[in-house]
Amino acid sequence: MTDPSAAAPARRSVSPSRHRGRIRKTLLIALAASVAVVACGAALTSLARPAGPPAAGTGSAGGTATIGVILEPTSLDITSNQGIATSQILIDNVYQGLVGIKPGTVAELVPVLATELPEMSPDGRTATFTLRTGVRFHSGARLTSHDVVVSLRETMRPETVGFASEIIEVDDSTIRIELAEPNSGLLWQLANAPGQIRKAGAENDLTVSAIGTGPYTLDTWERGKRLTLVRNAAYWGEPATLDSAVFQFVPRGRAAVTALRSGELDVHTALLPSLSPEFENDPEFTSVAATSTDVFTLAFNSQKAPFNDVRVRTALSRAIDEDALIAAQNNSGTPLGGPITKLDPGYADLTQTNAYDPASARELLREAGQENLSLTITMPDHYDPAPIDHVKRQFAAVGVAVTVKEVPFATWLEQVATNHDYQVSYVDHAEARNFGIYANPDSYFGYDNATVQGLYASAVATTDPTAADHLLRAAAAQVATDAPAKWLFNYTPTNVVSANVTGFPTVNTNSRINLAGVRVK
Q1: What is the pLDDT of residues 279-299, one digit of tens each?
Q2: Which of 99, 231, 261, 473 can pair with 240 through a Cys bridge, CB separation 3.0 to 4.6 Å?
Q3: What's the angle, vertex CA 338, arms to CA 372 and CA 106, rounded to 5?
Q4: Cβ pair 224, 150 in contact under 8 A
Q5: Could you give the angle at which helices 450-461 and 16-26 cross, rounded to 10 degrees?
Q6: Which of 115, 118, 124, 96 lies closest to 191 in space, CA to CA?
Q7: What pTM value is reported for the model?
């Protein structure tokens, strides 16, 4: 699911009509997962295999790291994954999949519970996985192929991952996934929330508990305060390097500064841009601009008037000066003229598409009969309002009045993401490789373009990374032209790390914090 992270400055060729029908039925309806194309396509066809299982016993474990995060999970149920806060804490640490993402990278896929990345059949529709031996759940139960099959059958469904698959138990240590048609997003989905494995038949309440195979076990979840993980002494792989990790929920920036200074926090992820200068040149802390696929997005509800008029969406896009917005946020971001970041497949520089042009914006609004437009922007209430204050002023300069409606994130999920009851939304899309939401007319954008849907479906179906990249570029260019949203900036959150902590991840920490190698001196 799309998730606000930190408070920011925070196939086969078929006709377009057939693409539309298939996309409506199979792409993400609730934005529950991201879809990879090129990176996964390359992984599916590569014969290269990483070395065997993690080496056990390297490095000593010890100490507790207290990590400040902005957003608290609304539920621990990884199968529904309502908001990326659940994945941010639990994936890699508590839950694991057949494959995962290599620490320090955005999308490099590596085997985890599988012994190696799968061999694909020549037609690109069948992947076979062999499970590692000696893996046990936190309950002590041994991992079997039956557990994998039951888990994946529950989550790898068309309505959640965007494609159909059959999960087959070959024997006690082998499973096979058969696709209705080639789909280069398979491994990406397996590495993310839909691919996390649970014990078949376990009766624990997934909303408040988590039993996986990872190096940490869930100890306590104190609602509104913190969630604590402890080292899994019986872990099958390389032992955790911390005795425990405490994720403390600190939605307010000044409170985070106080907690860091007092030693209550060892790390805070995504400190407010306006506050990050307070830690510059401070030997007690290191400030790291985390490489990120976060995109702070101003979405227009294309199914509602007046936003069903492309002239209005274009005008609003041209009214915004992204460079001024980023400069006002301590330069914690880069301009982004389209829906795909530099870290994702299909990126092209689209910053000149619907670029800042207030005169053109006023003229388009006049042509559309919206010279006195009033609109409401709905946003999660834990965000820094400063960026939207800038947007309000820029809209006012072209005659558009704005009311800002701040709501709890759970309300945003229900009202905007699920019910599509909004005019304009401000939110951070923190997931990597989530272009599929623009090819899904049932997503909260309400954007419906058959050309984009056809290009995206073709990109997903090909196993040629270069071809997929070209198709995605074409699709992204069309989306940027149609302006279902204004992509305000690609956010680079500042993580503030105490000098007593080493090994804290520096990539996409708003969506995934892998504790492997994190140590407290």
Answers
A1: 988 999 999 988 889 999 999
A2: 231
A3: 140
A4: no
A5: 70
A6: 96
A7: 0.79
